[in-house]
Structure formats: C-alpha cells, structure tokens
Amino acid sequence: MQFSSLLGALALASCGVVAQNVTYCPSGNVCYAVNVPATTASSGSGDIYFQITGPSTLSWIGLGQGTSMTGANIFMIYANSAGDNVTLSPRLGSGNRQPESDTTTDVTLLGGSGISNGVMTANVRCSNCNTWTGGSMSLTDTNSNWIWAYKTGSVISSDDVSANLAQHSNYGETTFNLQNAGGGSSSNPFLATTAMSTSSGNNSGSSSSGSSSVGGDSMPADYANVRMAHAILAPIAFVLFFPIGAMAIRLLSFPGLVWVHAGWMTFTYIIVLSSMGMGVWMAVVSKQLDQYHSIIGLVVVGCLLLQPISGFTHHLLYKREGRPNAATYPHIFWGRAVITLGIINGGLGLQLSGNTVKGEIAYGVVAAVMWLLWMIVIVLAFIRSRNKPEGETGEAVFEKPNDSTERMRISQSVHQQDSPLRLSFSGDNIGLAPKPTYG
Ligand code: HEM
Ligand SMILES: *[C@@H]1O[C@H](CO)[C@@H](O)[C@H](O)[C@H]1NC(C)=O
Ligand SMILES: *[C@@H]1O[C@H](CO)[C@@H](O)[C@H](O)[C@H]1NC(C)=O
Ligand SMILES: *[C@@H]1O[C@H](CO)[C@@H](O)[C@H](O)[C@H]1NC(C)=O
Q1: Residue spans with biased composition (Polar residues) (predicted)?
Q2: Half-sphere exposure of 132 (CA within 13 A, CB side)
Q3: What is the CATH number of domain 223-386?
C-alpha cells in the first residue's frame, strides 16, 4: 500500500500535474473534490475545477456553493440519455424546492467525465464561480461553505439540463479550505488521476477485480452479481419462507409438525446468514455499513438467533409440562416482530441500491400481501382456538411424547393441575397468540 501510493505520487510528480485539491466524501460512496489553480488563487477570479463522483445507480448528485439551498450556486449531475456520460446541470437554489436551471453559470464538462465501472464522474471547470446571482465566494477562503446532496432512486437518463429532479435522499453541508485546494496550472487537474488509475488498472492485467476508477474507489467486478444474489435470497427468506414456516405451524396439524417447522425455519435462517455475508461484504466494499439497511439487517439477523433457542426451549418444556411456558410467547412474538422488521428492511435495501420505483412497488406489494396473509392466519387461528371449549384443545394432540408413561403423566398433569392455569392463560390471552397447542 505504502509502496503503491509512493509510486502514484512519483508518477504524478514526474508528469508535473500534482493536483492540489480538497476532497469530501459524505456517504454512499459519493465524493467531491475542488481545485483552485495558482493563477486563480492569486487573482481572486478565474477558473476553478471540481469533481463529482458517485455510484451510477444514483438518480442525481449535487454540489453547491453556499450555506443553504436558498441562493446557492448548485451543480447537479445525472446520467445522460445514452447512459455513457453525465449531464451537468448548473442551477440556482431558491428555497427548499427544486433548484432552477441557470444558464449564466459558465461551466464546462471536461475529459475524464463519464459513466464506467458503475461510477459516474463529472470533471468540471467553472469560469465564473466567484460570483453568481445573489451570492459570491472568495476563492481563497479557508472556510468556504458548500452544500451537497444526492438522491437514490431511478436513473434520470436525460440530456436536458433542466430535467425534472425529485428531492434528495441525503444532503448536508461542508466547508473547504480553498487555501489547501490551491496550486497547479492544469487545464483539467482531475484528468491526471483518472488517466493514471485507468492505466495502472490496465497494466495490472488482472481481470478478477475491476480497474480502479476515478476518486480512488473501485467496485470489484463481482459486485453486481453478489448484489443480485443478495437481493434475491434475502427477500425469498423473509417474505416467503419465514412467513410460510410461521403460518404452517398455525394452520397445519400432524405429528412431527414441530420438526418440519424447526427444520424449515433453520434452513431459512441459513439462507439469511449467507445473504447477510454478501450484504456485509458489499457494505464494506462500498462503505455503506453506516446505512440504516445495513444496521437493521445486522440487528435482525442477530435477533433471529434467539428463535431456534427459544423454539427448542419451548419444545422441551412443553414436553415436560404440557403447556405454554416461559419460552413460548417470546418465541412467537419475538419471531413475528423480527421477521416483520426483516421484511421492512428489504424495502430499505431496494432504496439503498437505487432500484427502480417499479421494483420497489413490486416488492412492497408482494411483501404486504404475504404479511397480511400471515396476520389473517394468526387471527383466524386465534378465533378458532377461542371458540373451542376449554380442555378440548388437547395440547399433546399433535406431538405426543414418545413414551406412553410420559404421556400419562402429561395428560394427568394437564387435567389435574393445569386447567386453572390454562384458563387464566387463555382468559387474558396475550395479543393474538392462540392458546399454543403444539409442542
Ligand atoms: C430461525 C428459526 C425459527 C424462527 C424464525 C421461528 C419463528 C416462529 C414464529 C414467527 C412462530 C409464530 C408463528 C405465528 O406467527 O403464529 C413460531 C412458532 C413456533 N415455533 Fe418457531 N421459529 C424458529 C425455530 C423453531 C425451532 C427450532 C423450534 C423447535 C424445535 C420451533 C418451535 C416452534 C413452535 C412449537 C411454535 C408454535 C408455538 C405455539 O403456538 O405453541 N421454532 N416460530
Ligand atoms: C487530490 O490531490 C492529491 C494530491 O495532492 C491526489 O493524490 C488525489 O488523487 C487528488 N484527488 C482527486 C480526486 O483528484
Ligand atoms: C463526456 O463528455 C465530456 C464533455 O463532452 C467529454 O470530454 C468526455 O470525453 C465524455 N466522456 C465519455 C466517456 O464519453
Ligand atoms: C489498455 O490500454 C490500451 C491503450 O491505452 C487500450 O488500447 C486497451 O484497450 C486497454 N486494455 C484494457 C483491457 O483496458
């Protein structure tokens, strides 16, 4: 690492294009860099350069000069209609609404801009960014104010500089010390780093990992495949398999049902674990571990670990005591809550990956239908269990203890001691859990 960055510095120095710049990468792999050439710094006006980079799955990325949207000199980039380059749209902020296209800003999209390896890059020269309608910026300010924002969601694909853009999903402010951004006389300071990292990727001759792209971050070639696998496996587990396993134990009744449930749910949990592995890998590679989807995902998978434990404990105690026990309701309600959170988190994941609105709606509909079905099954099973006369639900019906003496003991205990207890259980039934009947 040390050695390669040394080589990089040497290569830059020998080309005589050492780009002095200030950079800021807020989140989501979005980065901004600003360069103020020496002549501009000394005269106070002239060309400045900036670079905007981020995942090409984003709807748009913006950078603005100013402290808030109102009166800010804003630059937005989004995929062009051909999908191989970005459209640079200079705009003027006028309050907390979509900034309006501003043709008085003298900006040029430079070489090195484009969309490749899943990254969109805009290398920009601005020739009059020291003043704009309603604002100004000292190009030597040690504490210059900038705002940034980007939007996840569908790709814009437009060449129109006044394309209609929806509100940001992430935004914030930052300051740049433009004294540190000063230097150089390149007519495209960010092209140097682009060209260098591209050629070093080319020289390495390795096809397993994509060549490093602009801004220093690169997406491994397998990223898209891993994301696809993650986005298929996790929803199948949370939206289909978990609810099916939960409904099965509510709806069906046959000997050994509990083991079908246990096996099915454990198998599904293994699917979840593997898709979590992929998720963690992606989050590390693309620095998205701080996103809600990543955090909630880890919490959900961690919380689910209690299920096999509480399930087994319920089962063991049930065999011994023949009635709901300390592990029963935790297993049922924790399971329902955590699986529901997992289903919701799938939607957050789709947002994070900048999926199409259609995709998000499709997921939402299927997830909502499955979840409602599950809740209906719970309510129906609850009603059915309440309508049955006390004592007839016969806890051990579906899973009788193997040995007959134990069965005796259980049915005795059920009839002799437990009836009052059971009554009180079903009397103030906890939520919508039917009297648990399987063990
Ligand atoms: C990751 C693993 C598991 C998950 C996510 C899970 C989840 C659930 C959920 C959500 C319910 C409530 C069904 C409803 O909505 O009404 C449930 C019920 C149940 N689970 Fe599991 N479970 C898992 C593993 C196990 C294991 C390993 C066992 C036993 C060996 C087990 C035994 C039971 C039993 C007996 C019930 C019914 C409780 C009753 O109503 O009496 N589960 N499980
Ligand atoms: C900013 O300049 C440094 C050298 O001063 C360089 O290593 C880095 O790649 C530059 N960043 C960009 C985005 O060009
Ligand atoms: C994107 O457009 C700019 C400005 O026209 C150009 O210099 C650059 O080469 C283009 N990039 C690609 C990949 O075509
Ligand atoms: C490597 O660079 C050369 C010259 O710049 C180019 O013609 C060639 O297509 C590149 N190869 C790859 C694999 O990018």
Answers
A1: 410-419
A2: 26
A3: 1.20.120.1770
